[in-house]
Every structure is written in C-alpha cells, then in structure tokens.
Amino acid sequence: MSSFWTEGNMLIDGRLVPSESGETFDNVNPATEQVIGAVANATAVDMDAAIGAARRAFDDTAWARSPEMRVRCIRQLHEALGRFADDLRATTVAEVGCPVALTYGPQLDSPVAGLPWVADLAESYEWETSLGLAEPFGMKTHRIVRREPVGVIGAITPWNYPVQINLAKMVPALAAGNTVVLKPAPDTPYGATLLGRLIAEHTDIPAGVVNVVTSADHAVGQQLCEDPRVDMISFTGSTATGTKIMTAAAPTIKKVFLELGGKSALIALDDADLGSVVTSAAFATTTHAGQGCANTTRLLLPRSRYREGVDALVEALKGWPFGDPTDPSVLMGPLIREEQRRRVLGYIDKGIEEGATVAIGGGVPDHLPTGYFVEPTVLTDVDPDSTVAQEEIFGPVLAVIAHDGDDDAVRIANNSRYGLSGAVVSASDERARAVADRMRTGTVNVNGGVFYGMDVPFGGYKQSGIGREMGVAGFEEYLEIKSIAVGAR
Ligand code: NAD
C-alpha cells in the first residue's frame, strides 16, 4: 500500500487554512494507537467564517443558478478522486481502522463510482414542470412548478464510513445548487479535509461553495444547527445526537434530514439454506467490526433449527481473519477508540447479566494487545426485549433470537425503536418477499440481494431517521419547491 495522505487544514472560503486559534487535535490510528497527524481544531470564529462564506457563495455567485457549472465541477471532483484513490485509500485505512478490503467497496471505491450518476441526474433533471393552463377563481393562469436549491446546507457526519457519507451528502447537495459547510467527526477528519484539498486544487468549485470545518468540540457542530444563515442540516450519526440536532435547529425552523442508528434483523425462515444464512450473519457481525448502521445485528433463527444455526455460526467465526487492517486478507479491524471498546464490552456484560450466553468471543483478543480490538461475539438465548436486542451496540456483537414462524419473526423484527434495515432468507423468493414487505424498515435485502448504490434511496423508518440519502429521493431532499402562477392574457 502507498503511504497515507494527510491534510491538517480546513477549507474556508476557498482557502486551506488552520484554525484562527492555531490549535490542533490529534488523529489517532485505532489499529496501532499511534498519532498519524494533527488537524485544525476550529473555534466558533472559524465556524462563523465558514457559514458566512457559504451564505455569500449561495447568494452572490452563479452556483445556485448554473446546473452546467455544477455538473462540470462534480465530474472534475470524480476525476480527482480517481487520480488520488490510492492515497485516500491508505488514509482511510489509517484513520478509520477499516480493513483495506472494504475500501474497494463501500468505504471508498463504490461511493466515488457513484459521482457520475449524480452529475447525470443533475444534467437531465426537470428543474421546471408545467402544470398547464387552468382557471382558478375564473383567472386564466399558466402554472409552473420549479425546483430550487434549499440554500446553505450544514452537513454533520460520523466516523464509521467517512468518505462515503461525506460524498453521499455533499455531492447531491452541490448538484442541486446548494452550498455546504461540512463538519466531520473528530475521529476521522482527513476523510473530509482531503476532499477539501481536492476541491480547492482540482476543481473550479467557486470559493465558499464548499467549506470543511474540523473540530474536537461538538459545540462547533451545534453552532451550525443554530445559526440562522444555515437553511438545512443534513446529519448522520446516533439517534441521541439526532435528537439534539433537531432541538438546536428548531428555533430557526431549519429543515432537518437525519440518518440515525439501527438494530436490524436478519430473518432465516424455516426453509432457508442455513449455510448462506450463517455466511451472511458472520459478515454482518464482522463487517467494519459491527460499526455500520445497517449491519444486521440481530439474527432470528427458526426455533427448530436454532442449535444447528448457532453451531454453524460459531464454526464459521472460529477462523475469522481479524487484525491488521492493512492486510488484504483481513476481514475485520478494530473499533474506533478505547471508549467505544469499553462501551461494547459493557454491552456484552449486560447481555450475560440479562440471561444471554456467549457462544464465541466476548472479550479482547489475546493476540492483539495493541489497537482497540474486540473478538467477533455471538450471544445466544437472547430475550427479544433485553438490552442487547434493543440497543445499538456498534461493535462485532450478534444477538441470536429464536422465532416460531413467519408471523412471529416479523413481530420480533419490528419490535424495535429503529427501522433502518433488515434481511430475509428463504428457499422461496415469494415467501421472503412477503416477509420483507411487512418489515418496518427503509431497506431490506432479500435472499442475498444488496441494496447499496448511489441510485438507491437509503434511510430509516421510526427512530432511524427522517428522509432519504442517495437516489433521486436523496437529491430532492436538497431542493425546495416553488409554484409559480403566471396570469394568461
Ligand atoms: P455521533 O452522533 O456521536 O456523532 C456524529 C456527528 O455529530 C459527529 O460529527 C459529531 O461531532 C457531531 N455531534 C455530536 N454532538 C453534536 C451536537 N450536539 N450538535 C451537533 N453535532 C454534534 O455518531 P458517531 O459515533 O460519530 O457515529 C455512529 C452513529 O452513527 C451510530 O449510531 C450509527 O448508527 C450512526 N450512523 C447512521 C448511518 C445512517 O445512514 N443511518 C450511517 C452511519 C452511521
């Protein structure tokens, strides 16, 4: 692998700049616990400047009114991302701790490959639709529906898939004609500052259209939610933070778009091929060490095949390759930080306290003394109402629950405050579809299908969020609708 790339400056009003205070914070590699570099620690003054720049760029430049310019700039960004993919890949592995294998998919290459789709959409989009002539109250009128950008977007993102989420928010927002202030998670700042550098050095995006503000202080994100010059907040993160964001945005009646937590269920129906169920469950548990909002972290097995399923899963996870994320054969890396590891281990203890059994894993691996690793862990005999079946653990911990048929499986799957994702496996596509259609979630995989794609809307029901990211629906989140009535003579 090539050596990784760092960028300690923010992007504010077209310039790569340090914090006005001169302060920085460290970026730590979760696999080695080593500092890989420092990044600007923004203050309220920096955030204020970024918001001001985004406001001016929206109000005073041609950006909001020129789809052609936007499409050209997004294609330039796509080209630059392709050119520097390997530098960005190494940085992503170093700061996120994800296996390099994941960067060839959802951590990097897949979202980058989606940019031309967004540019094509903006190019062919019907910005105005005619509703034709009518005579409301006897007044002859031509009616037109026009779509316009919302304005200044505050994008606040988490650390688990930083490049993917930064692009999934920023690119559709830009294509729609908005300007953006991006505030990434403090754990993974380079996934945003490097985008800032590419934008500044390799695109014609006007100064102020994109601003990247890094800070170790969550209050700087809160400021973005409160400032009246910001028109909309696009947030991905935990449901607890989502509540705070809605509250902070309420006094200025900002549009809020929220992608939040999940506790998704993988349902095996009684005719399912347990081999494919076990493979899916093992990957769902270990992919990015369970630090994915849509990982299926509850496995619902038919009661009659429960032991058979658990034994096969334990067997599969025994030899699971986890460890150094730069090793291409590794399928699972560490958690993002020590605090997160303590939280995950605390959940395992809580599960045991509430009656669950650890079938495999359950602790810190002896052979990996450095890095924030937790073993792939399977909890069996889990009560569907218990803490480990209800709360998002965000670690490699699977809760296995028995069900008594299709209706019972649907009931257990829907027994959650979340509604982000899910999966169903059955020998019959028709039966699996019938179950999938009853799941109260924003996405469902049926018999091994994969929903991910820049053209596929992604988001949650219930406390998993409001709105959709990606797809045409994700693009339209960033548009206002204006109805224009022109009197006909
Ligand atoms: P988090 O909620 O702790 O932080 C997310 C972002 O919010 C960070 O940038 C953080 O600095 C900022 N923030 C924190 N407090 C804030 C405040 N009061 N005001 C404004 N900004 C604030 O989430 P995390 O730990 O970074 O990420 C993990 C969570 O993200 C999980 O719950 C996961 O399910 C969720 N997630 C959801 C999706 C989805 O698409 N639904 C995708 C990825 C992650």
Automatic annotation (TrEMBL):
Segments forming domain Aldehyde dehydrogenase: 18-484
Keyword terms, alphabetized: Oxidoreductase
Residues annotated as the enzyme's active site: E259
Family from the record: Belongs to the aldehyde dehydrogenase family.
The organism's place on the tree of life at top rank: Bacteria
Protein's name according to its UniProt entry: Aldehyde dehydrogenase
Coiled-coil stretches: none
Species this protein is from: Mycolicibacterium parafortuitum
Oxidoreductase among keywords: yes
